[in-house]
Amino acid sequence: MTPPVSWKPQSSSGNFFQMNSTVIKIIRADVLPRFAEFLSRTGLPQLQMEAAWVLTNIAASDYTLLVAESGAVPRLVELLGSPNANVRHQAIWCLGNIAADLPSCRDILFDHGVVTPLLSQFREDMKIPVLRTAMWALSNLCFGKLPAEVQVKPILEIVSQLIHSADEKILADACWTVYYLCGGVDDAIQDALDAGVCPQLVNLLMHASSSVLLPVIMALARISAGDDAQVQVLIENGILNCLAQLLGRNYPKNIKKQACLIVSNIATGSKDQIQAVIDASIISPLIVILKTSETDIKKEAAWALSNAASGASSEQIQYLVSRGCLEPLCNVLTYQDPDLVYTCLEGLENILQAGEAGKKGEEESETNPYAQFILESGGLDKLEDLQDVNSERIYGLVMKLLQSYWEEEVSESDDPNIPGSNDSADSVETTSEDAAQPPAPASVADEAE
What we know:
InterPro entries: ARM-like (IPR011989), ARM-type_fold (IPR016024), Arm_3 (IPR032413), Armadillo (IPR000225), Importin_alpha (IPR024931)
GO biological process, one term: protein transport
Region (Disordered): 408-449
Function: Binds specifically and directly to substrates containing either a simple or bipartite NLS motif. Promotes docking of import substrates to the nuclear envelope.
Family: Belongs to the importin alpha family.
Number of helices: 27
Number of strands: 0
Strand content: under 5%
Helix content: 55-70%
Oligomer: single chain
Largest sheet: none
Shape: elongated
Order of helices and strands: HHHHHHHHHHHHHHHHHHHHHHHHHHH
């Protein structure tokens, strides 16, 4: 998560305040209250602006809290109503730097009612530099959990307009604001959808700039953590087709991780939503990521595939298996993440149950094809290794699977009188790229790709 960023503007006298030692001298001279008092000189707008400029620079240093506690905040909020545009702009800038610091600094701003006067700055006649500063300050203010009295809808009404901006800085900060709100305010996901941000956020997934794409996809990831109805809005706006492109191309790691996270959230939903993931041709890119990517991206892809397998229908499982999901899912069993391993086990259980149901009525074979493939690809060894895991729920599910589908193989491997009984998995030579896929159960209809 990208934190708010303080701006350190240059003063009118060059680099005077850039040196931290100069800031310390000003603080030691105990003149901060004096600068705060200058902000109230309504008849001297130039003095007000210069005082605000000094405080803006100090607020960008390590001494932001001192500025917030100097008595400047209520005067800066009051300056948002100044008739002088330059004074208003400098006040916004200073408030933005204060908001970018500690939660205690933001609390002081909220205590002095900064939100409403800041929102009033957003007007159609705003110049782009001022609009950039105001949007940046608003995004800093929304970082973290907002007080209950702060109304989110007016903020989202403004943001819903600015996510259409052609200016990348404005666009990025508007998207960061959606991301912050959807994680720090109850019911904000629904408020964001009601404000109409979803269609444009999905469109922005194809934006060329990574500085825009990152907050966009992180905001959408937050929304995808909502309930099934909220997730459905994302699906209906075409998010899965965009994610398929992101996953299949050479995007930065943090972008692909968020894309996998969104797919994972969608795959925890209904069977119709799992089908939407399948229809968008996302399963194959996920499996490629599981086989070839770095560990942290593999983990997110593993969640997506495990969630899909856990809730899939028999027909959907057939599709997942036909795309080669079994071996990478078995590899997930070695991950040091108990929650992920358990979800993966649930996915494997659902797959095995589908294989068991599919073999019924077959005259030629009583073999569960999915269980057989897991055995031949070394997955059974990984399951047996989990018998030593320090987790009762994982152990319980592992034993259930072993006893239900491989009771004979497990019994033979435990019998010391059977030569080579511990090497059954090694007798089948397969690789991750060349291992044959198990045949589909006869009772399951083929699914069109």
